[in-house]
Write a structure and sequence with these properties.
The complex is a heterodimer of chains A (448) and B (265). With 448 residues, chain A is of the alpha/beta class. Chain A contains eleven helices and 19 strands. Chain A has two domains: 245 residues, P-loop containing nucleotide triphosphate hydrolases (Rossmann fold), CATH 3.40.50; 140 residues, abc- transporter (atp binding component) like domain (Coagulation Factor XIII, Chain A, domain 1), CATH 2.70.50. Chain B is globular, with a radius of gyration of 19 Å. Chain B starts with a helix and ends with a helix. The chains are: A alpha/beta (448), B mainly alpha (265).
Chain lengths: 448, 265
């Protein structure tokens, strides 16, 4: 099959001015005689770095990647809006780019007139627009409002109209940048239907989206772009898998750094034999808990008669911040008491991102009677199976007296994340099983 | 570059659509609508007439420029077109940045639309001149009517050329808009619009010869005043050649900077 779009080691560099250059004026440029040199790049930022791939004609092609990985720049290069610094972009056929919907709408004039103007801008003739006008309006679901000025449209209406015009240009190659995010569920489905129709008619669709499900379901091929370079290319399922693994690694790193920022030393620092004193950055400054305990945001307080020096969250493979539903997880507290204590309770609570307490317990509730705590030791709280739904969770850990007077209370200082393949709702996933009588049947999943 | 220039002809439908959008959007929501294109210059002309015949009557005595109000209109209307074209063209790329950044759009259309839309305003103001001609009972000859589009064409080419230059440069040097504003005021007063050419001392005349708009203004004035429409044709020819050069240079500059627009706007 002939490629509809062909990229050959395409590189795009943006220039970035140093502070002084940024405020260059015509006058200063003329005075220095540097008019031409000011217009040439000095410091550069490589947005797309030597990317080569082909998009076969009639295929749906997905581009995925983190924010700022150069996806949109790449689309602009393909659409011809900007030119590559190096390399070649070859495109066969008429392109319609949905990079910003409704770009070029004039707010003061009616939707009807804007459809015509936008259509002409996208390369249609007046006659072609007249022919397609009813379809466009019907697709945008704006029959009632088409004669109202566009400035009175809601943002959804605006986007719908922009989308409707762009897809009715009937391009050979449709470039879509993250537009499925607009509109309600119904409209998103309609967009996908439209894309599918394009594909059936042998047109090429290029899709940039963070909706990985869409890419997996809809695309024949995908590429993963990372910091401007191509990291992976091929079957969408495989590309998405490698991408997600990388995202997970990135998250883990981020959470570890977050911990390091808060607590000076971390498990990994300890693991590498870093003997620096684990100084808690969140210092034990206050003795008394804040007035409204449950509204209090992250912090640390207590008398200091016993101190939790370090908290590590561990999975099967050692310290980690990222878990899957059902994984084993342990919270390890390093505790130290300068003087022997005989009144102490260890407590732990798990909160979700909305601040809802998912679970809380302590040694007193569980009827453990304290005897003695001397010197330094470790407390391990082990969860056999982490039955939480996907999300970010924070921990409260504390050691306090039986009356509740805190020795050391860590409020929401420790974070972990739970991933799940199932997008179930709620806060807790009870162990469960579905059973059906034989007259109720489900199809086996395709492709598994 | 030549190929791009040829493409301009292909875009005429787009230019037409955008110009009519500009015109429609401008007065949308106002009660008088398109009449403002007529009323605005009329009011302005009345102010100028009042100032220069009643408050500062020193220019009105030259016998070759009677009636004075009519004389002044001949230069003022083209000047309004010229100055607002340049101002709007210079900011056109910046204002319509989302078109350049988000849509595959021929950027040169934007300064062209600015110039052409202002030309339409100029046309809409012409009936004022007709009214004054009737008021002063000044008959118009066919030759004069024929000569008018020639002068108009020269001004159009000059405006487009300058518009290309200014719009492309303004993308990189935003201060150009403010500089231009002041420059145009200076230019206005150094052009024989509110005063006749005959009032200029010989030294001033020498400098005036380098002012292309002075020759345009005189050419417009000559249609109704002085010895007749063709008295200034040599200078108009020179300005015409100059305008074509400016147009080509302007377009070349625009074309050269084109790739930077999407990033800088």
């Amino acid at each position: 099959m002939r490629p509809a779009v062909e990229l050959e080691s395409v590189t795009k560099r943006y220039r970035r001015y140093a502070g002084r250059r940024k405020f260059a004026t015509l006058k200063s440029a003329l005075l220095r005689g540097s008019l031409v040199s000011d217009l040439s790049p000095d410091e550069t930022l490589t947005a797309v770095d030597g990317v080569t791939f082909k998009v076969p004609e009639g295929s749906a092609f997905g581009i995925i990647g983190r924010n700022g990985s150069g996806k949109s720049t790449l689309l602009k290069l393909i659409a011809g809006i900007s030119k590559p610094t190096q390399g070649n972009v070859r495109v066969r056929g008429r392109i319609s780019a949905l990079i910003e919907l409704g770009a070029g709408f004039h707010p003061e004039i009616s939707g009807r007139e804007n459809v015509f103007i936008n259509g002409v801008m996208l390369g249609l003739t007046n006659r072609e627009i007249t022919e397609r006008f009813d379809d466009i309006v019907a697709f945008a679901e704006l029959e009632e409002f088409i004669d109202a000025p566009v400035k009175n449209y809601s943002s959804g209406m605006y986007m719908r109209l922009g989308f409707a015009v762009a897809v009715h240009v009937d391009p050979d190659i449709l470039i879509v940048d993250e537009v499925l995010a607009v509109g309600d569920e119904g409209f998103s489905l309609k967009c996908l239907d439209k894309f599918a129709e394009f594909k059936r008619r042998g047109k090429t669709v290029l899709l940039v989206t963070h909706g990985l499900d869409t890419v997996q379901k809809f695309c024949d091929e995908a590429v993963w772009l990372d910091e401007g370079a191509l990291r992976s290319q091929g079957d969408p399922r495989r590309v998405i898998h490698t991408y997600l693994q990388d995202v997970a690694r990135g998250e883990e790193k981020l959470l570890t750094e977050d911990d390091r920022r808060k607590f000076g030393a971390t498990a990994s620092a300890e693991a590498t034999g870093d003997s620096a004193d684990p100084v808690l950055e969140a210092e034990l400054t206050r003795e008394e808990p804040p007035e409204d305990m449950f509204r209090a945001s992250e912090g640390r307080w207590g008398s200091g008669d016993a101190v939790i020096n370090e908290v590590t969250i561990e999975g099967d493979g050692g310290p980690a911040h990222l878990y899957h539903t059902g994984d084993r997880m342990a919270v390890r507290l390093s505790v130290q008491a300068p003087e022997p204590l005989n009144d102490f309770v260890f407590g732990i609570s798990i909160f979700n991102a909305e601040g809802v307490c998912c679970y809380g317990t302590n040694t007193d509730i569980e009827e453990l009677i304290p005897d003695v705590l001397t010197g330094s030791g470790q407390v391990v709280f082990e969860i056999e199976s982490l039955d939480l739904v996907e999300g970010t969770y924070k921990l409260d850990v504390a050691v306090h007296t039986r009356e509740g007077r805190p020795y050391d209370y860590h409020r929401l200082l420790h974070t972990f994340r739970v991933k799940s393949r199932t997008k179930d709702a709620g806060i807790y996933r009870p162990r469960h099983r579905w059973t059906f009588t034989p007259n109720i049947r489900f199809r086996p999943r395709v492709g598994e | 570059m030549l190929e791009n220039l040829r493409n301009l002809i292909r875009y005429r439908g787009l230019i037409q659509t955008l110009v009519s959008r500009e015109l429609k959007a401008r007065y949308r929501g106002s009660v008088l609508g398109f009449f403002w294109s007529f009323i605005n210059p009329l009011l302005l002309l009345l102010v100028y007439t009042f100032v220069f015949t009643v408050v500062l009557p020193s220019f009105r005595d030259d016998p070759t420029t009677q009636p004075y109000a009519l004389f002044m209109f001949c230069g003022l209307l083209p000047w309004f077109w010229f100055s607002s074209s340049l101002l709007e063209a210079s900011s056109s790329l910046v204002v319509h940045g989302n078109l350049i950044k988000k849509v595959l759009f021929p950027a040169e259309i934007l300064p062209i639309v600015a110039v052409v839309a202002n030309m339409c305003h100029f046309f809409l103001a012409l009936p004022i001149l007709a009214l004054f001609l009737i008021f002063y009972a000044r008959p118009v000859q066919i030759v004069e009517l024929v000569w008018f589009p020639v002068v108009l064409l020269v001004q159009l080419i000059l405006s487009l050329g300058l518009g290309f230059m200014l719009s492309a440069l303004t993308v990189h040097f935003r201060d150009l808009r403010d500089i231009l504003n002041n420059l145009l005021t200076l230019w206005f007063f150094s052009t024989p619009i509110i005063y006749p050419m005959s009032m200029i001392p010989p030294v001033g005349k020498f400098f005036m010869d380098f002012n292309p708009f002075a020759h345009l203004a005189i050419s417009y004035q000559e249609i109704l005043f002085y010895e007749g429409p063709f008295g200034h044709w040599k200078w108009l020819l020179a300005v015409g050649v100059f305008s074509v050069v400016v147009f080509l240079l302007g377009y070349a500059l625009f074309d050269r900077l084109r790739d930077s627009f999407a990033e800088e706007v």
